[in-house]
């Protein structure tokens, strides 16, 4: 049954509640909202009266959310974020739509960006905004409509489109590979993949104990280090194919590429029919030719 709007608190009331809940202070919330402290206090009192629930505990000069208030604040913050994002998208591009996409730096730069001209030719009215996110985040509190992410994480209620498997390649300069036994050479690894070498060496039958490792924070940095002869790097195949073809990097002889994960486009179920996302998702499906699958819960 659809709830009556007369039971929905007014937007200014909810905005005041969210600001106080986030800042923990009526004074700070009033400054942020450009209201008087008394006006913000009246909004909080009105909301507690309408809901029949104590949302804050008064502790001296600071307001502390009750457990019920904390849960309600999370829901209201997510709803206000959606309203803000929808309004911004409407203002920025009322005819085509705006798609805010979270990406990982390497796949965004080296796999997605070179293909985007085809998407914009097919959908000239859509504006695509991309921002790098290497750490986990919550769609409810971010402005993203979707994300390109590595492996699968628990995003309850989300759906996913498989893009490509990541094949890890061991590469080094030809000069380094000729300088001694390959298994004894220094190794380069990504900070976020601490077990990559262990998995790769196990698959290829290399010794793994006691090997020197330099840790770097991004694939782009690790690629430069490998090109400088600092060690053997484990890199995604799509990042080093050109370097291998040009001969600046080479694979050690007699080793195999190892699949270590998969990239997905992931989006909240509530965004599934957003026109700009629908167009982008369909275009990506054509690029990869794989079906969409439910996200892991």
Q: Which helices and strands occur, and which strands form pairs?
A:
Layout: H1 11-23, H2 26-33, H3 37-51, E1 56-59, E2 62-65, H4 67-92, E3 98-103, H5 105-112, H6 116-122, E4 127-132, E5 146-150, E6 158-171, H7 174-177, E7 187-190, H8 196-204, E8 213-216, H9 219-227, E9 232-236, H10 237-246, E10 258-268, H11 275-288, E11 292-294
Parallel strand pairs: 3-4, 3-5, 7-8, 7-9
Antiparallel strand pairs: 1-2, 5-10, 6-9, 6-10, 6-11
Helix pairs in contact: 1-2, 1-3, 1-4, 2-3
Shape descriptor? elongated
Q: What proportion strand?
A: 15-25%
- Order of secondary-structure elements: HHHEEHEHHEEEHEHEHEHEHE
What is the domain total for the residues? 2
Q: Output mean pLDDT.
A: 84
- CATH architecture descriptor name of the largest domain: 3-Layer(aba) Sandwich
CATH domain topology of the largest domain: D-Maltodextrin-Binding Protein, domain 2
Helix percentage? 40-55%
Number of helices: 11
Distance between the termini: 27 Å
Number of strands: 11
Largest sheet: 9 strands, mixed
Description:
With 297 residues, this protein is α/β, with parallel strands linked by helices. It folds into two domains: 86 residues, Arc Repressor Mutant, subunit A; 203 residues, D-Maltodextrin-Binding Protein, domain 2, CATH 3.40.190.290. The protein has eleven helices and eleven strands. Strand 7, helix 8 and strand 8 form a beta-alpha-beta unit. The radius of gyration is 25 Å and the shape is elongated.
């Amino acid at each position: 049954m659809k709830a009556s709007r007369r039971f929905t608190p007014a937007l200014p009331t909810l905005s005041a509640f969210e600001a106080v809940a986030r800042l923990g202070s009526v004074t700070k919330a009033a400054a942020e909202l450009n209201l008087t402290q008394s006006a913000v206090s009246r909004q909080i009192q009105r909301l507690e009266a309408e809901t029949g629930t104590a949302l804050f505990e008064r502790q001296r000069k600071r307001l502390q959310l009750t457990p019920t208030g904390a849960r309600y604040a999370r829901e209201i913050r997510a709803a206000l974020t959606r309203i803000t994002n929808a309004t911004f998208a409407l203002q920025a591009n009322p005819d085509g739509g705006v798609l805010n996409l979270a990406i990982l730096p390497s796949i965004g730069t080296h796999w997605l960006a070179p293909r985007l001209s085809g998407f914009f030719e097919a959908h000239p009215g859509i504006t695509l905004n991309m921002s790098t996110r290497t750490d986990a985040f919550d769609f409810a509190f971010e402005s993203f409509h979707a994300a390109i992410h590595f492996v699968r994480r628990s995003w309850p209620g989300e759906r996913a489109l498989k893009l490509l498997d990541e094949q890890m390649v061991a590469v080094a300069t030809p000069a380094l590979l000729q300088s001694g036994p390959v298994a004894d050479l220094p190794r380069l690894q990504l900070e976020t993949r601490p077990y990559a070498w262990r998995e790769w060496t196990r698959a290829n039958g290399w010794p793994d104990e006691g090997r020197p490792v330099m840790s770097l924070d991004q694939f782009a940095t690790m690629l430069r280090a490998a090109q400088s002869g600092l060690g053997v790097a484990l890199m995604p195949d799509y990042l080093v194919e050109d370097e291998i073809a040009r001969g600046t990097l080479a694979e050690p002889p007699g080793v195999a590429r190892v699949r270590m994960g998969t990239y997905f486009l992931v989006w909240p179920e509530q965004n599934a029919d957003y026109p700009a996302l629908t167009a982008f998702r369909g275009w990506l499906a054509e690029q990869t030719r794989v079906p969409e699958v439910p996200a892991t819960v």
